[in-house]
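The methods section describes the discrete structure representation at length, but only in general terms. What matters is that the chain and its backbone geometry are given together, residue for residue. Nothing conveys this as quickly as seeing an actual entry. For illustration, here is how one protein appears when written out as sequence plus structure tokens:
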Amino acid sequence: MNDRNTSEPRIPEPQTFEVDLTAHETRRRAEVLAALGDTWDPIAAMEGEAEAYRLLYSGLDAEQQATYDALVAAGVLPASGQA
């Protein structure tokens, strides 16, 4: 019988592992812009979002308007024209 393997296994010390994702993030952003293409207009996209926001909160009845006003006052929603 060989008892060489009866000693406790050694547990290695924790090691610090660092990854710099700067290059990956730069490449990801470049790929996103390439996928959007040359026709993407960020100003038009923002104006479209603002218009959608205006439409979403237009035509509210009195109760809905009161709820909207309370949410704006509480800071949950931005005031009209700030979206």
User: Anything to note?
Assistant: The chain has a mean pLDDT of 88. The CA atoms of residues 21 and 27 lie 10 Å apart.
